[in-house]
Each structure stands twice: as C-alpha cells, then as structure tokens.
Amino acid sequence: MSFLTETKGKNEWVEWGKAIFIAILVAFFLRSFVFATSIVEGESMDPTLQDGERVIFNKIIYFIDEPERGDIVIIERPTKNYVKRVIALPGETIKIDNHVLYINEEAYEQNFIRQEALNSTGNFGPIQVPENNYFVMGDNRAISKDSRNGLGMINEDDIIGKSEFVIFPFDQWSITR
C-alpha cells in the first residue's frame, strides 16, 4: 500500500467526520432555536389534535411576529407545557353568552370545533385581555383547562411556539390549523 493511498483514506475519514459533525451541529441548532416537538396530553384540543399525538412547533415565529387569533400555540408552564388555541388578542374584550363567543361585541364563528363543544360552553365575561396577554381555549371546551378556568391570561413570554405539523402517529401526519 502506497503512502498516497493511505493518506487518501485518512482524508476521506476526516471529511466524513467533518460532515457528520456539521450535521449534528445543524440539527442541534434547529432543535434548540427553530423547531421542537411536543406531545399532546389529554383531549382538550379534540378534534383538532388527539391525545398522544406529537406535534412539531415553530419556536422562532413569535420572535418575528405576534400570535394571531386561531393559532395553536405551545404555552410553557413550570410543571408542563399546554397546547391551546389563541382566541382573543391583547386589548380585546371577550364574552361568551348563550353559547356564542363574542370578541369586541361581535359574534365570532368557531368553525374549528364541534357543535357539542359550542353547546357545552357556559357563559363567561365580559373581560378585557390585558396588554401583552392572550386569551386561549382548547377546542374541546367542556373539558379544557384554559384562560376561563385555571390557566388565566397567557403572557406573551409564556408562548414558546406555534404548532405547525402533527408528525406522530405516522398515519396522521397533517398541518395543524
């Protein structure tokens, strides 16, 4: 075996090592700062998200933009993260009266939830959402712990991402909306 062949073989291993190292760094960067996964626990987001589904959420979007009504967001709390839907924005007034959701005195159509969920939503408010806070609810209103009953208003800093895709179970891959 010649010196040239031996050097070429070592260089090839070094190049492979560099490529693997760079790939690991890119994956670590993406996982830490851009995308992460979360597991849906419970049925509070049914029918949109099911118990046990794993979602990919975008961690960087709210550094360049603000949450919008309808976004499915990941909320960080000390004991666990919650997956909920943004219903009212900072400064808006929310009220639920006779199973109808009103935002700033205008009825808001909730086409993302089942009729039974609409019918199980009790009266609430009116209440104004403070600045830098959001009012969130689960899509399964009857059993959801949300801004009405336990989570309270969600500070903008507690929203750590926007749910983008369901990735597990594999047969249920979808975009979350």
Please provide a written account of the structure:
This protein is an alpha+beta fold. The chain has one domain: Umud Fragment, subunit A (Ribbon). 23% of the residues lie in helices and 33% in strands. It has 3 helices and 12 strands, in the order H-E-E-H-E-E-E-E-E-H-E-E-E-E-E. It has helices at 3-34, 61-64, 115-119, and strands spanning 35-39, 54-58, 72-76, 81-88, 93-97, 100-103, 106-107, 124-128, 133-137, 154-155, 159-168, 174-175. It is elongated, with a radius of gyration of 22 Å.
Write the layout of secondary structure elements.
Elements: H1 3-34, E1 35-39, E2 54-58, H2 61-64, E3 72-76, E4 81-88, E5 93-97, E6 100-103, E7 106-107, H3 115-119, E8 124-128, E9 133-137, E10 154-155, E11 159-168, E12 174-175
Antiparallel strand pairs: 1-2, 2-11, 3-4, 3-11, 4-9, 5-6, 5-8, 6-7, 9-10, 11-12
What would you say about this model in short?
With 177 residues, this protein is an alpha+beta fold. It is 23% helix and 33% strand. The strands form 2 sheets. Strands 1, 2, 3, 4, 9, 10, 11 and 12 form an 8-stranded antiparallel β-sheet that branches. The protein has a 4-stranded antiparallel β-sheet with strand order 7-6-5-8, with no helix packed on it.
Low-pLDDT stretches: none
CATH class: Mainly Beta
Task: Look at the structure and name the CATH superfamily.
Answer: Umud Fragment, subunit A
Corresponding CATH architecture: Ribbon
Radius of gyration: 22 Å
Main sheet? 8 strands, antiparallel
Annotated CATH topology: Umud Fragment, subunit A
Quaternary structure type: single chain
Number of discrete helical segments: 3
Got a strand count?
A: 12
Distance between the termini: 61 Å
**Mean pLDDT, rounded to whole units?**
82
Counted up, domains total: 1
Class of secondary structure makeup: alpha+beta
Domain Peptidase S26: 13-167
EC number: 3.4.21.89
Transmembrane segments: 20-40
GO molecular function: signal peptidase activity
